[in-house]
């Protein structure tokens, strides 16, 4: 029996954490984007009437100022009738906007998850009319839940709420023109504004500055979603954070890591903290190693120019895989409140040792011909220098230096142009002491239990167990307790961007990266990245479509680990 229905228009929406349950630590003095603030004492009477859980938080920040927006929100004045949400996609002509952002907004609209009064604006330098934007967007919209008949009608309605303004990213004047248009659409209602920075990082600051000065809301909230990369190392990331904080307070910055919006990643905490069978095993006492595996079966096609400046360690490991690791390894948070969760994640990251050169293997894909088709080398990409040493594959061993995880290797593997597309979390347990069944056909040292959380594709959670083969004799084999999502749940899984956009609109920060998390994450990788660059270490070449460099096996073997994704059982599922 399902516990909830994943539908905004019905109970699912009601089951999402309510705004009153979210943390709102508002800075005492706020930069221009945050709107006016009022002393908190005005609201103490109202606050004392709230539930104990809310009160705990509110009392904690009693000395802060409270924003008008926050007051209206807390007091329930930001109602559907008198408030609007304007979403501006900055860089609307780009790849991410077309591929992910507009489709996600449409899916939210289709599911009745957007507020009653909302407007979407595309903003970019390209010249486009509203009609041209709609035509561009319409090409990427799909009727995801296509069983319902009214999809094309919904599409038309959605497109009717999309508009475009052409402007430069560094022009306060152009953003002031946008502001004027936004106001017209807001029709005097309370204005809440979300800016999604879907632009290259070198122009983030220009856009934030101009949006801040010329297009922030005067009476509601203003939030900015920032896309990765958040810098290239500790220094550049700190500079970006500092730059953003000239115009925004931390609570207005929504740093997106779309892996946090993936269903199975969000489910990690549910699995751990709501099932008695897992949490007691979640430590060095029972877990031998944890593997975080990201594999893509295509190269950097089309994104080589961007990728060559970053490489796979910055592109995947430092953010997506490390975020999963932090969620996996954190202690039980005090509550599901964003700050409580992020506090625990930061503690894990700070407990980790910076990655060492001897604990990393890097690779780069080379050309390979198979079945008459020649697949290109990374350096065949016209936008990549022929002598590039940028890794397209990396395997690493990391350690969490605390009482729970002391000595447990957390192995990461990430690669492009490999044999398969797959993201998994694999937990290999210790062997059963005593080996009572050793003589019955199974080497229990090798056949340890393994929990696999397959993030994508074909989302699944399965546990490998040893089981008696039915019959009069006593022989064991390895079987799977298998929760395959497609079989268990009929509902299509929402795209990560849908969840994250909805959270940003609702002010839910749990799945976004806080600046101290980012700082701790970069501290783990920056020394190694510098060493790789200073020593000009050459990546091991691996053929396009292969399983990656053999060095990854030696690294795992050093810690007495075998990569779980290479075992034959894997393919039975
Ligand atoms: N694409 C993806 O799959 C992913 C992207 N990201 C991140 O999201 C952001 C957007 O990505 P994506 O859409 O691929 O980016 P694009 O390269 O497509 O750029 C988006 C828009 O920005 C404008 N632009 C591009 N280059 C410049 C420049 N040098 N100076 C000024 N404006 C420029 C262009 O619009 P115009 O010329 O009309 O102004 C372009 O349409 C980036 O930060 C990227 O790292 C993160 C994860 C995945
Ligand atoms: O952030 C990124 O993620 C994509 C992979 O995302 P997925 O949701 O399709 O798994 C990756 O291809 C890209 O290089 C990277 O920048």
TrEMBL record:
- The Glucose-6-phosphate dehydrogenase NAD-binding domain covers 89-267
User: One Pfam family for this entry, by name?
Assistant: G6PD_N
Q: Which UniProt keywords apply?
A: Carbohydrate metabolism, Glucose metabolism, NADP, Oxidoreductase
UniProt entry tagged with the keyword 4Fe-4S? no
Looking at the keywords, is NADP present?
yes
Report the pathway entry. Answer: Carbohydrate degradation; pentose phosphate pathway; D-ribulose 5-phosphate from D-glucose 6-phosphate (oxidative stage): step 1/3
Q: Per the database record, which ranges form the Glucose-6-phosphate dehydrogenase C-terminal domain?
A: 270-563
Q: Please provide, alphabetically and separated by semicolons, the GO molecular function terms listed in this UniProt record.
A: glucose-6-phosphate dehydrogenase activity; NADP binding
Q: Which reaction does it catalyse?
A: D-glucose 6-phosphate + NADP(+) = 6-phospho-D-glucono-1,5-lactone + NADPH + H(+)
Which PROSITE patterns does this entry report, sorted A to Z? Answer: G6P_DEHYDROGENASE
What EC number(s) is this enzyme filed under? 1.1.1.49
Which top-rank group of organisms is this from?
A: Eukaryota
Q: Which InterPro entries match?
A: G6P_DH (IPR001282), G6P_DH_AS (IPR019796), G6P_DH_C (IPR022675), G6P_DH_NAD-bd (IPR022674), NAD(P)-bd_dom_sf (IPR036291)
PANTHER family linked: GLUCOSE-6-PHOSPHATE 1-DEHYDROGENASE 2, CHLOROPLASTIC, GLUCOSE-6-PHOSPHATE 1-DEHYDROGENASE G6PD
By what name is this protein known? Glucose-6-phosphate 1-dehydrogenase
Native organism is: Phoenix dactylifera (Date palm)
Q: Which gene encodes it?
A: LOC103695560
């Amino acid at each position: 029996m399902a516990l909830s229905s994943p539908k905004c228009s019905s109970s699912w929406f009601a089951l999402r954490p309510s705004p009153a349950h979210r943390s709102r630590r508002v800075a005492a003095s706020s930069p221009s984007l945050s709107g006016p603030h009022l002393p908190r004492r005005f609201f103490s009477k109202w606050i004392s009437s709230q539930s104990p859980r809310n009160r705990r938080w509110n009392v904690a920040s009693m000395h802060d100022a409270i924003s008008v927006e926050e007051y209206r929100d807390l007091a329930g004045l930001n109602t559907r009738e008198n408030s609007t949400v304007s979403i501006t996609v900055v860089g609307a002509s780009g790849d991410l906007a077309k591929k992910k952002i507009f489709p996600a907004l449409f899916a939210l609209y289709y599911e009745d998850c957007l507020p009653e009064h909302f407007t979407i604006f595309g903003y970019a330098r390209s010249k486009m009319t509203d009609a041209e934007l709609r035509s561009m967007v319409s090409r990427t919209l799909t009727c995801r839940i296509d069983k319902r008949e009214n999809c094309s009608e919904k599409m038309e309605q959605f497109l009717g709420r999309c508009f475009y303004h052409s402007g430069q990213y560094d022009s306060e004047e152009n953003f002031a023109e946008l502001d004027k248009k936004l106001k017209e659409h807001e029709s005097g209602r309370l204005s809440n504004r979300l800016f999604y920075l879907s632009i290259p990082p070198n122009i983030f600051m220009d856009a934030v500055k101009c949006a801040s000065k010329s297009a922030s809301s005067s009476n509601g909230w203003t939030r900015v979603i920032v896309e990765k990369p958040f810098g290239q190392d500790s220094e550049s990331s700190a500079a970006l954070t500092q730059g953003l904080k000239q115009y925004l307070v931390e609570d207005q910055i929504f740093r997106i890591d779309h892996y946090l919006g993936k269903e199975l990643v969000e489910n990690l905490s549910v699995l751990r903290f709501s099932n008695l069978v897992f949490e007691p095993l979640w430590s060095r006492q029972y877990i031998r190693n944890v593997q975080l595996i990201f594999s893509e079966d295509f190269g950097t096609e089309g994104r080589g120019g961007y990728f060559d400046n970053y490489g796979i360690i910055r592109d995947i490991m430092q953010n997506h895989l490390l975020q999963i690791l932090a969620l996996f390894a954190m202690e039980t948070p005090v509550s599901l409140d964003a700050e409580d969760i992020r506090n625990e994640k930061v503690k894990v990251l700070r407990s980790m040792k910076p990655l060492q050169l001897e604990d990393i293997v890097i690779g780069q894909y080379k050309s390979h011909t198979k079945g008459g088709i020649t697949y290109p080398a990374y350096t065949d990409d016209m936008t990549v220098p022929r002598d590039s040493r940028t890794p397209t594959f990396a395997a690493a061993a990391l350690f969490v230096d605390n009482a729970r995880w002391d000595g447990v290797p957390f192995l990461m593997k990430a690669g492009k142009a490999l044999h398969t597309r797959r993201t998994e979390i694999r937990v290999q347990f210790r062997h059963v002491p005593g080996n009572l069944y050793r003589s019955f056909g199974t080497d229990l040292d090798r056949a340890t239990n393994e929990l696999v959380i397959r993030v994508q594709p074909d989302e699944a959670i399965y546990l490998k167990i040893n089981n008696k083969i039915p019959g009069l004799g006593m022989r064991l084999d390895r079987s799977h307790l298998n929760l395959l999502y497609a079989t268990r749940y009929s509902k299509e899984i929402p795209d990560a961007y849908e969840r994250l956009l909805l959270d940003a609109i609702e002010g839910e920060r749990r799945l976004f990266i806080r600046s101290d998390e980012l700082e701790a994450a970069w501290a783990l990788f920056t020394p190694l990245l510098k060493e790789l660059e200073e020593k000009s270490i050459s990546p091991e070449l691996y053929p396009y479509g292969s399983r990656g460099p053999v060095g990854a096996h030696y690294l795992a073997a050093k810690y007495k680990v075998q990569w779980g994704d290479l075992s034959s059982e894997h393919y039975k599922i």
